[in-house]
Amino acid sequence: MEPIEIGIAVTAGLLLVVILGMRVAFAAAIAGLVGLIWIFWSKKGYAPDQFGWAFTVAAKTAGQVPHSKVASQALSLIPTFILIGYLAYYAGLTRALFEAAKRWMGWVPGGLAVSTIFATAGFSAVSGASVATSAVFARIAIPEMLKVGYDKRFAAGVVAAGGTLASLIPPSAILVIYAIIVEQDVGMLLLAGFLPGMVSAVIYAGLVIALAMTIKGFGPPVGGYSWRQRLAAVPATLPIFVVVAVIILFVYNPFGGAAWGTPTEGGAIGAFVVFCMAVYRGMRWPELKKALIETAKLSVMIFSIIWGVLIFVRFLGFAQLPTAFADWIGGLEQSPWITLILILLAYAVLGMFMDAIGMMLLTLPVVYPAVMALNGGAFVSAEESAFGMNGVLCGVWFGILVVKMAELCLITPPIGLNCFVVAGVRDDISVQDVFRGASPFFVADALTIATLLAFPAIVLWLPRLAMGN
Amino acid sequence: MASASSVLADDSLVSRLDRRLFRVEGWLALVSGLAVFSLMLLAVVSVGGRNFFGQPLPGYVDWIEQAMPLIALSGIAFVQRLGGHIRMDIVVGMLKGRALWVTEFVTTFLVLLLVIVLIYGSWAHFQRSFDFAAPLWSRDSSIDIALPLWPAKLVVPVALFILGLRLVLQLFAYGRAIASGTASPVAVPLIEDAATQASREAESVHDARVDEETVRDTPQSRDI
Amino acid sequence: VEWNVSVWGKRRAFTEHVEKMKELVEQKTNGEFTMNISYGGLSKNRENLDGISIGAFEMAQFCAGYHRDKNPTITVLELPFLGVDTLELERELSEVVYDHPAVEADLARWNATLLMPSPMPQYNVVGKGDKPSKLEDFSGLAVRATGGIGQAMEKVGAVPTSVTATEARQALDSGIVQGVAFAPHAHMSFGTVEGGQWWTTNLNPGTVNCPVVVNTDALNALSDEHREALMSSVEESLDHYVENYNTNTMGKWDPTLEEKGIEKVTFGEDEIAAFEEKAAGPIAKAWVEEMNGRGLPGQELYDLVTKTIEEKKAQNQ
Ligand code: NA
Ligand code: NA
To answer: A48 CA distance to ligand 2 centroid (A)?
Structure first.
């Protein structure tokens, strides 16, 4: 068998065991290990006495990956961004945001759902992980929505979808992962996510209002707050702005001077600010311990997928699959726009079966060079490019599009991490309920993607500003 | 996903071993969390040193790279105990009783095989960086301040070894469940529906209870 | 026979000898002996020696300074102020050192045989902010410099600051470092020339040594004909590499500086001599002592290097 055929066979096997319910991280690692053994053995013509050699080499090659791939400075942003989210919960920021949003937005149709969307958007500015955001809001927003008679499926769906905003609005662990895979500037990607995140939130809110207005008794408004009460809710949310300012200043200094440091440092300093705030608000060792264990748990979960999938990716490297795919895409004779849209659609399909990080790790080494080639190469100027932007900005724009697609996977069955987490927090809501409740948001996400495709400036405005600086 | 699963406990040997191992796993998870916390402090020291004392922390990156394997791996068995590693449960979610436990047994067994192979491979990775005869026992060092890499590399086989113990224990528990055909086996994470069903059953027969400690000490606890 | 070759990054001046090797070997064996060059798909660059040792791939490139403890002997070539001034000299010097029995034994621990060097010119600093007019101005500046070059910069009061090559530009832009030491091709590919304002033309503190190695078992398993095709292509591949680096990369360097408006900083000969005196001797001495502590012939290797440089320079005059 040719290496590429081995690659395809093993990939099919991987999908099978994942569907049978094996933990994704381990399934990918097993597939990668089997694939490596296969490739090395085939190199020796499948001679029976060479199997031992092939097995040993494959085991040692795979055994390198967990340490090697995880020991990276850039990846250290992921646990720090997760820690910020949990500390912010203990600093009382989650409840403060939801309370303020409720008082200001509660009166519109679907008021509490709209409030949840904007509160998650605000919380996204301190939380780097979608899953963590959904987890904390499931504890706060769902009970309130159920109290005023929301459908429990919809209430859960709103929280699951709102959580995805955390990955666009900086800080964002997944934008960091994208930047690392494609070797782009992390700071620029974090900046680029800001406006699309806001646009996404507005489109979500619009959808909720439209639903509430068309379906009777869908989401009753919550009114009756005086302006005094509204203003009183604001101060408690102000710490969010401090953290946002800190993180932004570490990425890009809007006052024209140098940024204060690297995004890695910005994330850590942001976490430290929130930590001080949480201690001030009465967090002590038991709460801190809980936050640390929560952080550890989510980090371990994410990193297990990272190294598991990377064992598989290592095998793909030996099978030479990435090169074959890039050649194929490069050889297509159709409009680059159509190819780009097809790629995004492929992500939507793939995203149903995979988690966001695994999907990006698996595909980007292959797809990113192909997209750069579509635009006219990594060093193309805006004038000569297919998408009207230079190579660097195309990398940023595509990154935001991919991350938005990856976020969509968080709320699509059968593997939609955010929905699992929401169902996990709430005893009374099943995963199927959350998936059903989140389904209207596919439409909103499709609208957002279309908007970002049609108006790349939404993505590129801030990065251009920073570059011109 | 079984992320919200509960683990049942009773007085059987496997359940007692489960809880003892879980205590160790809990400590290791806390180590992982503390490592994240120390990353944060490290950045404060580094930024502060650079901006206020004109003296950046030497080897900042090297230290981060040392801490990362600890963060990523030391809690791996803890997460397995809680059923927190993500998976698709559309198929297993439809299975019940023996069919479910047989499926779980088979996939868990495959994972155990993987883990054994990876312990061997990551141990070899550690050994290549370790040399009793060398200064600091180091045969592989970091790029800037030449920290020995073997301690960080040793984290992997050790964490996987604990995971291996956990998997053996789970296999044992699934084996018992296959033999007895129970709907409420102890010492393994139960998927949501099964868990609800099991605890209801447990209440009625009084021979099993939801492990109190699991509820109290884990992120699954619903009270944070 | 197909060999897998593990390098990293993109195809660039730094990998041209490997690409040429592939071409030549395939040509000479009528396509019987092929090479599949993978840019990062097979291993992380700092673990290429591990991969060679395992036998996962047959050929790889790495840099000595990535992991001093893995290859202590060849770090002699990264000592500061050895006085290597051309790529040709760097190439000849590396080849002499690679033939030393202690070096061969060092690499044999990894089941590796040294095939050829990837000679690079002297590193120099691209910086941002106040331009240093004398060496004392480096005092208190954070400079991204690793290995022997970092130790040398420390001697003039600079603070060697660890940022990865890929973060170097961000670090320069954000003021974490005020200078970055790289070879010209790296200054161009890691983008430090975009934000830089000045460039030191003659600091020349040293360079980094990045050999190409092969797995010894795989080498021994080759048929005589194939091994001959491989070994006979080494010099030709290196000729191509050096020619390409000198004409294309170095040819592009001055226009790049001009285009980006980067000012050239040239230090007086006395100053450089003083810097050299401060850095070269003590660092070399410490290196020799460390090697002796490991039971390696440190002095012998150091003497081999200095003697070879003298001889070759004399020959070329
Ligand atoms: Na965020
Ligand atoms: Na999905």
So the answer is: 41
Instruction: Give the Cα separation of A312 and A394 in Å (integer).
Output: 28
Which residue has 């790289």 as its token pair?
C182
Domain contains B22: yes
Which positions in chain A touch B188 (Cβ < 8 Å)?
none
Q: Which residue has the tokens 């297993």?
A: B92
Domain spans of chain A?
1-63+305-319, 73-298
Contact C301, C209 (CB under 8 A): no
The pLDDT of residue A354 is 66
N- to C-terminal Cα distance for chain A?
A: 54
Q: How far is C167 from chain A (nearest CA, A)?
A: 8
Residue B164 inside a domain? The answer is yes
User: Is there a domain that residue B212 lies in?
Assistant: no
Distance of alpha carbon A183 from alpha carbon A172, whole angstroms: 16
Rounded alpha-carbon distances, angstroms, from residue A363 to A63, A181, A182, A304, A312: 22, 10, 11, 18, 11
Instruction: Give this complex's ipTM.
Output: 0.87
Cα distances from A161 to residues A237, A359, B82, C228, in angstroms, run 22, 19, 25, 63
Instruction: Flag whether pLDDT at B200 surpasses 60.
Output: no
C-alpha span between C302 and A204 (Å, rounded): 68
Judge: B141–C70 Cβ closer than 8 Å, yes or no. yes
Which residue type sits at A424?
Answer: G
The CA distance from C56 to the nearest CA of chain A, in Å, is 6
Q: Read off the amino acid at residue C280.
A: A
3-state helix, strand, coil in chain B (%, to 5): 65, 5, 30
Q: Check B143 against C160: CB less than 8 A apart.
A: no
R_g of chain C computed on alpha carbons: 20
C-beta separation of C217 from C111 below 8 A: yes
Task: Give me the residues near ligand 2 (ion), CB cutoff below 5 Å.
Answer: A 352, 409, 412, 415-416
Residues of A in contact with C41 (CB under 8 A): 314, 316-318, 320, 322, 365
**Which ligand ends up closest to the CA of A175?**
1
In the prediction, which pLDDT does C173 show? 75
**Over the range C228-253, which residues count as b (16 or more CB within 10 Å of their CB) and which as e?**
ebbeebbeebbebbbebbeeebeeeb
Q: Give dist(CA A186, CA A396) in Å, integer.
A: 10
CA–CA separation, C144 and C181 (whole Å): 6
Indicate which ligand has the atom closest to the C-alpha of A164.
Answer: 1
Asked whether the beta carbons of C184 and C121 are under 8 A apart, the reply is: yes
Number of domains in chain B: 1
**Range with the lowest mean pLDDT among A30-39, A58-67, C110-119, C137-146?**
C137-146
Give the residue numbers spanning the domain of B68. Answer: 5-206
Distance A296 CA to ligand 1 centre (A): 18
* Cβ within 8 Å, pair B222-A272: no
Contact list in C for residue A317 (CB cut-off 8 A) is: 38, 40-42
Report percent pLDDT > 70 for chain A.
94
- Cross-chain CB nearest to B219 (options A297, A413, A430): A297
- Considering only alpha carbons, which residue of chain B is nearest residue C150? B144
Q: Is residue B224 part of a domain?
A: no
Q: What is the pLDDT of residues B22-74, one digit of tens each?
A: 999 999 999 999 999 999 998 888 888 777 776 667 778 889 889 999 999 99
Q: Is the pLDDT of residue A319 over 80?
A: yes
Under a CB-based contact definition with an 8 Å cutoff, are residues C94 and C245 in contact? no
Q: Looking at residue B210, what is its pLDDT?
A: 41
Tell me, in angstroms, the distance from the centre of ligand 1 to residue A134's CA. Answer: 12
Give B42's contacts in chain A (Cβ within 8 Å). 268
Which ligand has the minimum distance to the alpha carbon of residue A414?
2
Query: Rounded CA gap, A188 and A173, in Å?
Result: 14
Surface-to-core class of residue C31, CB atoms within 10 Å of its CB (0-12 exposed, 13-18 middle, 19+ buried): exposed
